[in-house]
Fold these 4 entries.
Entry 1:
Amino acid sequence: MRLKAPTSPLWTEAVLRDFDAFLRDHANCERKASGSAMNMVSHYPDRTELVTAMIDLAREELEHFHGVYQHMASRGLALGPDLKDPYVRRLSQEYRKGSDAYFLDRLLAAGILEARGCERFGLVAEALPPGSLRDFYRDITRSEARHQGLFVRLALLYFDRPAVEARLDELLDAESRIVADLPPRAALH
């Protein structure tokens, strides 16, 4: 999956200016990602491939949450409140009505979220000095790359390729507009 708009260098600057805030937001994102995977399990229990993949994903996202929390604790930081993410909120407004359309949009939007996370975690890793935090973000970047592919593969299990590709292109267009509209901040999205 190729994002249609790269992240501005201003975003990386915002993150580095307030890395503590970024860590809090990252922890919340990982916790929510684990919960979202389990939410898919409860909403689509009859889709066995999806259930297996989402259980594995939920566990991995929870491990990421634990890793971020350990880095936070080493800096004397506590978890922050659960704030609504304007990027995620706006992307979810693109979901269509109807069970199949909604399901496809959820899968593809999840893949887009992972793709943007992959790109941005890579930017963070490259901006950090050598050390355990940089290594952590390099590992997270590799995980996010696998996750974006997972959601597209799942979409292709349940929908035909032309429908997946057309809708993915539409959602990527919407995502690029969302990214362009939002100001850079010390948060993943």
Note: The chain has one domain: 10-181.
Entry 2:
Amino acid sequence: MLRFLTAGESHGKGLVVIVEGLPAGLAVEAGYISDELARRRLGYGRGPRMRFEADELTLLGGVRHGRTLGSPVAIEIANSEWPKWTEEMSPAPGQTSKPLTQPRPGHADLAGMQKYALAEARDVLERASARETAARVAAGAVCKLLLGDLGVQVVSHVVQLGPALAKAGRRPGPGDLEAVDLSPVRCFDPDAEAEMVEAVKAAARDGDSLGGVAEVIAYGVPVGLGSHVHWDRKIDGLLAQALMSIHAVKGVEIGEGIEVAGLRGSVAHDAIGWDPEAKDYPRSSNHAGGVEGGMTNGQPVVARCYMKPLATLNRPVLKTVDVVTKQESVSFKERTDHTAVPAMGVVAETMMAWVLAGEAVRKFGGDSMAELVRNRDGYLAGLRA
């Protein structure tokens, strides 16, 4: 099975991710992963850190001459800002000259300090930072390459940013990812795009932040990934856990799960037909988001991630308490964005790709890409027969 592990802090020397379980023979290039990391920095409303913090990527192991070896793939993402933080984030014995003792509401600061018996917030916030998602994107980029060899493409777009909403049903196809990325807010609806930009500008003028919703769609997913037989193998459960783990995401919806909760069963489900030429069972709709009974059903897999407004604001209004003096204070400010919803969509692609790739490897098996593809082809031929 696929698994990955990340290490590193936001202002540390770098991030490291190790991906285990990839078949041998998968074509991987550092340039492609770097391009995916650059997509994570996209989006109107991002802070200045996105402009000067480069992702310096190195493939440390598991890849030779552009192909995976079947051994763990190790990727390092160096922090170009490290020289400014060598003293503050040094692993050598010592202590900080600037202790942060005023935990920020909406962050992991206070709960982490209490859980791990830590004296200051930086010991928590450095690892809890969304900077960690850069390592996830690197791992997910490799998974997107694997899925591509299986005919699966994953795209994302922003459907809501603050109060601005995209038109219902306006959804990018498998070839539209470049067009989405050209939008300053990664929205596929040009009318809503302008409203979203204005909403971000308004929040910025007030020193405030905006949340929103990103939708992720996987096209070409074969039927049968996941399982109905155990709770922890249901693919909608796996997707929900993976997507909910993204920083500041507070809700995950599979298909039209929220809307269909208010409908009658006679209109909430996707009718099944039969196509004798394709030897397939087409659906008249996709309310279920490509998942039924914990398994993919051959339709596009659709999920939406609901992100709260960022809790670090440019205007110090959120009240807190200094854990040393116990005096009321206001939340301190690290460098922040006005919104990170467009970038969150890119991270959500990563996590959906991770789940789908992992279930594809589990379903089809094989130590090499050639074997994996051959097993997939045999499975699909069996379905048609």
Note: The chain is about 35% helix and 20% strand.
Entry 3:
Amino acid sequence: MTSGADTLRRVAPGAVDALDAVVGALWAAAAASGTTAIVALAAERSAGLLGLDPLRPTGRHATVAGWDGDVGTVLDFATQCTLDVASVTDEQRAGFLAATGPLAAELAAALWVVDVLPRTRAALDALFGDGSWPDPTADDVPGGLWGALDGVVRVVPALDALDPVTSELVRLRGARQHDCRLCRSLRSRSALRAGATDEDFAAVDHYAESDLSPLARASLALVDAMVWTPGHLDPAVVSALQAAATPAQQVEVVLDVTRNALNKVAVALAADAAHVEDGVEIYDIEPDGSLVYGLDPD
């Protein structure tokens, strides 16, 4: 019997290592900054709101000391980021920044991890079967938590089971749901070269009734499910993706949604301004996973 964890390890072992590094670095960074308690509380809050299993500190980081900061303000910010990051108010944002001070960037990243990774695990379990998710054994990650997140950003684009057009449509749907100004303004040169059209991009907003491929429609439905109802994935959404996609493609859709959801940090902190005032900007992903902007579409 397979499981989400087993299939992920079989299909994308590099992604497993990258995600494990994120979880390990999360609790190592929290312990070093004295924020384990608030991160653990946010993990319980986020998962509880979504009906998911929370991430919890383990091993030598399992002892949770108190936090002398403004717990209520941070949890209010975390709650809004979990439920609808596009609706974070200026007041909530300012309160979070004031409460966390120099720890704001690290805590914003930590809140993202405890919000998004349980969604990833739940989606994979729904697609491939429930199973245990082993605790990471290493937390000595170069660059700490942000360095570990950069590892995810770089390893996921190296997967090649999905075609560039479907991957770009998945990215755009997530951008629409999180209302990331930068992400909404971008178009992939690889997708354009693979035949993506303006009509395809526009169809993202009404994909269920569109002429997009069954794979694209099923993938976009999973995007919505992971964003809005990750703890209660519609069996019809799951079965549609299983019917339209290979296991490797299913895994890649889930990981694409996970990687793309890093835009939640930028949106939450109002750091998501587009590079262009009008129209769209062409980007591409280099072999090392880095992004290049301002390209010619051809």
Note: DSSP finds 15 helices and three strands in the chain.
Entry 4:
Amino acid sequence: MSAYAPKIVVFTCNWCQRGGTDLSAITKECGMPAVKIVKSMCSGAVSPAHILRAFKSGADGVFVVGCPLGDCHYISGNYKARRRVKLMKTVLSQLGIEPERLGIALLSEAEVAKFKTALTKFADNVSSLGSLSGTKAGVN
């Protein structure tokens, strides 16, 4: 990762990332001190308003973490989250914000290594884009 540490908001499902995986410790272990973890009961409950509010509040990137497809506690919340992230990438693009600033990973609690890899890759991509507050685009 570059010297710039992007501010990232991670919306995480209560069910797939709850027990032994302390996400705060993982983000610090990966060298990402500017990551804020926001727990949701389901990734499908993360609304477009939540995503836009995160960007408006200064996030350089937003990462949604949900259960693997077929394993949602609420049956289809992860499918809803996946569709919503795809839609929001289009909305962000129309607002002048790079769609790469929004990401999603559908992982079980046991896939800690995959979570670290996915978050690190996402943070590297956001870092290469630079600070969102430093651009003329934004969410008003």
Note: Residues 77-94 form the longest helix (18 residues).
